[in-house]
Amino acid sequence: MKIGVIGGGAWGTALAQVAARGGAPVLLWAREPDVVASINGANQNAAFLPGVALSPSIRATGSLGALSGCDALLVVAPAQHVRAVLAETAVGATPLVLCAKGIEAGTKLLVGEVAHQVAPRAPIAVLSGPTFAHEVAAGKPTAVTLACEDEDLRTRLAERLAGPAFRLYASGDVTGAEIGGAVKNVLAIACGVVEGAGLGLNARAALIARGFAEMTRFGLARGGQAETLTGLSGLGDLVLTCSSTNSRNFSLGVGLGQGRPAAELLGDRRTVAEGAFTAPVLREAAADAGVDMPVTAAVCALLEGADVRDVVEALLSRPMKAE
Ligand SMILES: NC(=O)C1=CN([C@@H]2O[C@H](COP(=O)(O)OP(=O)(O)OC[C@H]3O[C@@H](n4cnc5c(N)ncnc54)[C@H](OP(=O)(O)O)[C@@H]3O)[C@@H](O)[C@H]2O)C=CC1
Ligand SMILES: O=C(CO)COP(=O)(O)O
Predict the structure, then answer these.
(1) Whole-angstrom Cα distance, residue 295 to residue 234?
(2) Is the CB of 77 under 6 A from ligand 1?
(3) Which ligand sits closest to the CA of 185?
(4) Which among 17, 98, 110, 130 is least surrounded, fewest beta carbons within 10 Å?
């Protein structure tokens, strides 16, 4: 199975490295000419995954058309750009493994739903879980959810992608796997705010637990399964991203908690903090589904410029609830 990767950021590059294990050929599409040149010329992605020696069997291209010979495509462009890149790719019936985490602004669609609109004949799988790209690229032990309704395709993808340090857990719940990854990015911003504002570890633990309740309510309302939300792609990824400044979303939250404006924090970065784009559309999708998501609403308020103390006070003064 020849693997193509759409996206030359940190995660696309780390996944290419996984797929190139044992010298298997992998073709990676990157938008930036400097990334293509760096991978083809020096076997590294100096811009997004510096310091990692990439397998020489990874070749990069700036042409989405070049992916037409691949047997499966890993989709790793930021969620808001998936529609545009897939529209330019001759996907046909090639299986798509969605690895981006987010909800599309405007349509409120999960990335898999976007992919299905653009490439209706392509079978869909989702790969998601607690996976900092630099750790995966360094071969550190990692476990993820691989969700696909087609059991035969799931098995073939798992055989192609799994390795001793990259363990895949099978699921048939594509929606649940996607919702965990999208929602945890928003909650990670909130946990970063707690850190940046110096609110303490008790507050962070409370936020993780109440955030998980929020993720579960939304996930169940959208048709996800409870066991997926408590698995690697839900709770597992929430725990990882809510506890480390290696997370871009958590780091963005730290800056917000210190009182820095969102526009300045977002303008400073070349890498993507998906939660900033997911939060407002998640708030709308939750309202549509009649689901209460107070932590998400608080993150939206902070991104829109509200004062940290006011937002925290509003969260703490909510009426008492049953757990
Ligand atoms: N990094 C990680 O550890 C993990 C990331 N993910 C998910 O993977 C996805 C990609 O993240 P990641 O690889 O980290 O991204 P990075 O932040 O490392 O890089 C972003 C990439 O997206 C590209 N990009 C920006 N705008 C567009 C566009 N209009 N069309 C196509 N590509 C564009 C950037 O190119 P340019 O420089 O030209 O703007 C760059 O290559 C996200 O959904 C993220 O949540 C999932 C698991 C782990
Ligand atoms: O999704 C991730 C880890 O699973 C990466 O998190 P950040 O995008 O917050 O860095």
Answers:
(1) 16
(2) yes
(3) 2
(4) 130
Whether the pTM exceeds 0.90: the reply is yes
What ipTM was estimated for this complex? 0.97
The domain limits of the chain are: 3-172, 175-316
* CATH no., domain 3-172: 3.40.50.720
In the chain, how many H helices and how many E strands?
Answer: 15, 8
> Residue 231, annotated ligand binder?
no
**pLDDT confidence band for 204 (50 / 70 / 90):** very high
| Catalytic residue status for 140 | no
Is the four-CA dihedral 159, 115, 14, 89 of positive or negative sign? positive
Our answer on whether the CB atom of 32 is closer than 6 Å to any ligand 1 atom is yes
What is the chain's alpha carbon radius of gyration, rounded to the nearest angstrom? 19
Architecture of domain 175-316: Orthogonal Bundle (1.10)
Distance from the alpha carbon of residue 38 to the mean position of ligand 2, in angstroms = 23
Contact 37, 106 (CB under 8 A): no
